[in-house]
Specification:
10 helices; about 260 residues; five-stranded parallel beta sheet; Rossmann fold; alpha/beta
Length: about 260
């Protein structure tokens, strides 16, 4: 077996096992009225979305939500900066995954000049207090930074350009980020310096190899949430009783979707 095939086999096995554990973790969150917030940050095309997809694809969407907020509206711009993020925080028994978060102010807003220096400094100063309050309210808060190299980022951008199912992911802002690599690096370093705290640390995910970053991140999430398996009663399906008194209406009365396969 080639190394590539072996790697893929090991990845598929690991991701299947981890997704089963994620289901057990969600059961524990629901059963114990826990509140979980997981933040995914990183450069464009760093692999955040793919990891989030693998986390959520087998979970109950009623109690696991992804918050991927668009740019603030004119009204939201006049609100307390954290306000629109607070509106997306979990209630008891819920998990919220932020695909980018309030840390937009420390990254794209700072680099692209979408916020003033005063707003930027205030964000760095107040974010630890904000996160301390979240944790104090009972929220389990985890923060992940996906670290991708410059060459790999460009490679992924090129892949998006040539893939009609992914070209929507590539915005003018993404293209501009190539020219501002060093500015984003400095902004990330300053963000880490001010917001990587003992009570709310950042965890860095090496993400040049997508599959590795996914299993490493999910495994770490599971290690940081003290869940226990919840026992459920065994479900037994009853035997179907023949419906002697029911006659199905003629198919000609309904509009069926044409079959192309």
């Amino acid at each position: 077996m080639s190394n590539k095939k072996e790697f893929k086999k090991n990845y598929n096995k690991l991701i299947d096992e981890l997704q089963i554990k994620l289901v057990h973790m969600q059961d524990w969150v629901i059963e114990n009225d826990k509140k979980v917030v997981i933040i995914f940050e990183g450069r464009d095309a760093a692999g955040k979305g793919g990891t989030i997809k693998r986390i959520t694809e087998n979970l109950n969407p009623r109690s696991c939500k992804v918050a991927a907020l668009a740019k603030p509206s004119d009204r939201e711009k006049t609100q307390w900066y954290f306000q629109r993020y607070v509106a997306n925080l979990p209630a008891a028994g819920e998990i919220v995954l932020f695909d980018r978060s309030w840390y937009n102010r420390a990254g794209v807003e700072k680099v692209m000049g979408f916020c003033s220096d005063k707003e930027y400094i205030e964000f760095l100063q107040t974010t630890p207090d904000f996160e301390r309050m979240l944790i104090g309210s009972g929220i389990i808060l985890l923060k992940y930074w996906f670290s991708v190299s410059a060459d790999e980022q460009v490679k992924r951008f090129e892949g998006r350009i040539n893939d009609p199912t992914k070209v929507w992911k590539l915005s003018p802002m993404d293209v501009e980020s190539i020219n501002r690599w060093e500015d984003y690096s400095k902004a990330k370093d300053n963000m880490m310096e001010h917001t990587d705290t003992d009570f709310s640390p950042w965890y860095i995910v090496e993400s040049d190899i997508k599959k590795k970053s996914r299993v490493n991140c999910i495994s770490h999430i599971l290690s940081k949430i003290p869940y226990q398996d919840i026992e459920h009663e065994t479900v037994e399906l009853p035997e179907r009783t023949p419906a002697d008194s029911y006659e199905r209406p003629s198919r000609s009365r309904f509009n069926y979707v044409p079959e192309i396969l």
